[in-house]
Amino acid sequence: IEVTYYLIHGMGDRGDFAHRDAQSARNFAAAAAKAGVKRIIYLGGLGNENQQLSEHLKSRNEVGQILGETGIPVTELRASIIIGSGGASFEIIRDLVKKLPLMITPRWVNSRCQPIGIGDVLKYLIGLLEAPRTPGRVFDIGGEEILTYSQMMREVAEVMGKRLYLINVPVLTPRLSAYWLNLVTTVPMSVAYPLIDGLRNDTICADNRIRDLINFQMTPFREAVQQALDEEGQLKVESRWTEASMPENV
Predict the structure, then answer these.
(1) Is residue 141 part of a domain?
(2) Residue 59 maps to which CATH number?
(3) What is the Cα–Cα distance from 116 to 184, expressed in whole angstroms?
(4) 69: helix, strand or coil
(5) What is the pLDDT, as a whole number, of residue 55?
(6) What pLDDT is attached to residue 11?
(7) Residue 203 within a domain
(8) Separation CA 198–CA 108 (nearest Å)
(9) pLDDT tens, position by position, for the chain (250 residues)?
(10) What is the CA 187 to chain-centroid distance, rounded?
(11) Which DSSP state fits 247?
(12) What is the pLDDT of residue 12?
């Protein structure tokens, strides 16, 4: 085995997801070393390490470090919010827009991100197989548009043909927001809370170095949203976020 991809996360039904993240990464790295794997490509989360990162983003970064502890070169892609059918973040935004024409929103809706279409993420993941000078390096990936979460929801509403009114109430905590999301979206509390807690951090690419190595025409945000909605409408969702979480005994 020349190359393996590490795409799973520890958010699940119960328990300490950060502990599961770390334990799974150690088990995977040990198995990869035993099998003679020459390289690991890991899809993590984007976040400024100089800021106080959420537990979710901190755990994602620690996984990248753990995967490299056996000496196998790791290429880490740190992605902003991924827009695609079956993704937890996209399902949250879609369900909110679909079910709540009037939303009382917390301060995290003003955080900025660079949403990237799932198709573009796959192009980067595949492109790394042949791109030179990438083993052992960390790259930020995101779309070309920088948006706040409120701007994203408004644009998703327009694509879906929905009216959307937002009222900002800064006192709502991440945990209260997660309980609220648990009532109106398909994403359970155990997944919603780590994701919402992470939204307090801007997820903006520090640089675009990867585009010097893997260059293609990126998908605009609205087009990525439309593609995701079309796939859901045609029942072409090939995988969901639930399939990326590991069992507790892994």
Answers:
(1) yes
(2) 3.40.50.720
(3) 24
(4) coil
(5) 75
(6) 57
(7) yes
(8) 9
(9) 899 999 987 655 555 778 888 999 999 999 999 999 999 999 998 877 666 777 778 888 899 999 999 999 999 999 999 998 777 788 888 888 888 888 878 777 888 999 999 999 999 999 999 998 899 999 999 999 999 999 999 999 999 999 999 888 766 666 666 666 667 777 666 676 667 766 777 889 999 999 999 999 999 999 999 999 998 877 554 544 444 444 444 5
(10) 14
(11) P
(12) 54
Residue entry with tokens 């990936």: 141
Q: How far is CA 174 from the centre of its chain?
A: 17
Question: Which pair of tokens denotes residue 148?
Answer: 């706040």
Containing structural domain, residue 49: 3-244
Domain count across the chain: 1
- Tell me whether residue 250 is in a domain: no
Q: Which residues contact 178 (CB under 8 A, 6 or more apart)?
A: 189, 192, 193, 196, 197
**8 A C-beta contact, residue 76 and residue 138:** yes
Residue 171's identity, in one-letter code, is V
**Alpha helices, DSSP H only, in the chain?**
17-34, 55-67, 88-99, 118-127, 149-160, 174-184, 189-198, 221-233
- Residue 75's Cα: distance from chain center in Å? 17
Of 247, 191, 242, 192, the closest CA to residue 24 belongs to: 247
Q: How far is CA 22 from the centre of its chain?
A: 17
**Beta pairing class for 147-148 and 82-83:** unpaired
Place of tokens 């009037």: 102
The whole-angstrom separation of Cα 95 and Cα 128 is 33
- Confidence at residue 16, expressed as pLDDT on a 0 to 100 scale: 72
Whether 249 maps to a domain, the answer reads no
Residue 194, helix vs strand vs coil: helix
Residues 46 and 79: beta-carbon distance below 8 Å: yes
